[in-house]
Write a structure and sequence with these properties.
This protein has 163 residues and is of the alpha+beta class. The protein has one domain: Beta-Lactamase (2-Layer Sandwich), CATH 3.30.450.20. Helix content is 22%, strand content 23%. The protein has five helices and five strands.
């Protein structure tokens, strides 16, 4: 997928400013010849104020499996602990079953971003907030095969205030 193939999301104007800022920074990382940016292009210091809300996930193999690489402090709160280095399918087992990750799969396999606003999925944060907004952004060291997912999430209380 080239930069020209990407469409600006129709609802971009309604995105939370932090989510939109990371997305716009990610767009600037696109290689000149097209394709997806790699992890090497991402300079965390350029978005240091967003890092508490950011996670990096490794994408390993096909079908893809996901491992927490970097987790910001707000995300650690949302996850209920620091899961750095753990596989998502092992860290989030419920009732003996490993969960599916369809949004991550779309990012990893199609190289397309995934944005969502709605109820949180992390059980540890459901009692602290009523809504969350997030975007998953693909990173590919070779420009086409997604090997990492950059994500940012913001959480809101029942009154709509960021928590």
């Amino acid at each position: 997928m080239t930069t020209d193939d990407r469409k600006t999301p129709e609802n971009l104007g309604s995105w939370h400013p932090k989510i939109r800022e990371l997305y716009e920074y990610w767009l600037k990382l696109q290689p000149a010849g097209g394709g997806l940016p790699g992890r090497g292009a991402f300079d965390p210091m350029r978005v240091a104020h967003l890092l508490p809300h950011v996670m990096l996930l490794d994408v390993v193999g096909r079908p893809p499996r996901y491992r927490y690489r970097v987790i910001g402090t707000r995300m650690v709160d949302a996850l209920g602990g620091d899961l750095t280095g753990r596989w998502l399918d092992e860290a989030h087992v419920r009732d003996g079953k490993a969960p599916a990750f369809p949004a991550y799969d779309k990012v990893a396999l199609a190289g397309e971003l995934q944005w969502r606003r709605g109820s949180p999925h992390f059980a540890s944060y459901i009692d602290k907030c009523s809504e969350m907004e997030r975007v998953f952004l693909p990173l590919a060291g070779n420009g086409k095969d997604v090997d990492m997912i950059l994500t940012i999430a913001v959480f809101f209380d029942r009154a709509g205030n960021e928590v």
